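note to self: the first set is below, dont mix up w the second
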Amino acid sequence: MCTLERKGNIFILTLTGPGEHRLNPTLIDSIRSVLNQVRAAVTTTATSSSPSALITTAHGKFFSNGYDLSWAQSSESRIELMDAKLRSLVADLISLPMPTIAAVSGHASAAGFILALSHDYLLMRRDRGFIYMSELDIELLLPRWFLALIESKVGSPAARRDLLLRADKVKADVAVAKGIIYSAHDSAEETVEAAANLGEELVRRKWNGHVYAHIRKDLLSDVLDEIRRNTTGTKSRL
């Protein structure tokens, strides 16, 4: 499912295995469990934490290919459960007392892109993979909280249009040019290395993690409000 490695004050969460890393309750719970370990490792008091950074990456061709729709097909409640669990995971990331970096080593589609976008920085490999909001192509409506996150993180209306109303498969260099991601790199290894270098740079600032998280929560308050409203998109084909 996922592993956690610590290198000094850098935590590396890796989605393991060669598969698509589809977001079902089991995988989401595994990621949340790792984040709880990270939070516990750095929190010293209610008001302070050791300077740290989190990197999330994945093995194989995919960073994450979105929700596990095959698992969800058997009942309406299953997709609602996946959405509820992903909302909780994103809220965990927003409240984590440290900078967060997604090192996207392959395709990041739909909810998989939302997972990556929930980090403070998004780095991608340029030799393989794309970001892709597939809902228009597969005839699914978007949860309102997905839209709130994209509106908060993607500043250009044209870039949001191309993601959501063209369902473009956006490669790394184009994503940089559109302001969707932070930087592009030549391979998966170089992407993770760049994420580690960025993490070390941020750790050297010695910020108070709880102050960092409080500012992030204020910055993304509209996203958190939508998460709390418990609103989901209505499926049209599942």
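second set (the one i keep forgetting abt)
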Amino acid sequence: MSNIGLAVAAILLFSCNSMAQKSNLSVQEFEKAIGQKDIQLLDVRTPGEYQSGHLANAFLADWTNQQEFIWRVTALDNSKPVYVYCLSGGRSDAANRWLHKNGFTAYSLSGGINAWQKENKPLVIDKPVEQMSKEAYLASIPKDKTVLVDFSAQWCPPCKKMEPVLEKLEKDHGLKFTLLKIDGGSQTQLCNALQVDAFPTFILYKQGKPVWRKTGIVEIKDFIDRL
């Protein structure tokens, strides 16, 4: 290889390493960055790890479940930066590389939650909630009304994407229906009983009976047609 070729290769290698370093933030840099507006915070640990303590307002997309990870992350806004963390940094670095390859601007927390806790930074620990039985759930659905049930979770990116759709559905159309929201992230027993294994899941009831079910992103026209 010529001297020019070696120089170009060295520059490219330096650029790649610089990009990797810039996208890997210290605890202080990460904390400052996520305090800004119009950012997206992503926890790529397992649901169990998330429940043991997570950063406030973090979405969840388990890196070890690639199908679920991709499905949730593709609902994020690629015009806004994504700040990623895991337990010690390995999974978030891998997720960070995936995000960059797929058109996102992303940054990962160096050392993960372990480093965050060493700096005595706050974590949110979700409190257990009283579980709703299947019988109580069915009893809460009026038999004389059309009811659309939204099983969602605060940490679910596709659920967040559906919020303005549901708001528009309620405000912009004179449809006679009741929207019932269930926090599927905490009502795990009810989700198991109804075989709701992904969020968001929508179930439409007419005269107290389920007539339609859909999981994932739903176009407003589909709702209108069903209602």
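remember for set 2: Strands lie at 24-25, 40-43, 59-60, 82-85, 106-109, 146-152, 178-183, 201-206, 209-215.
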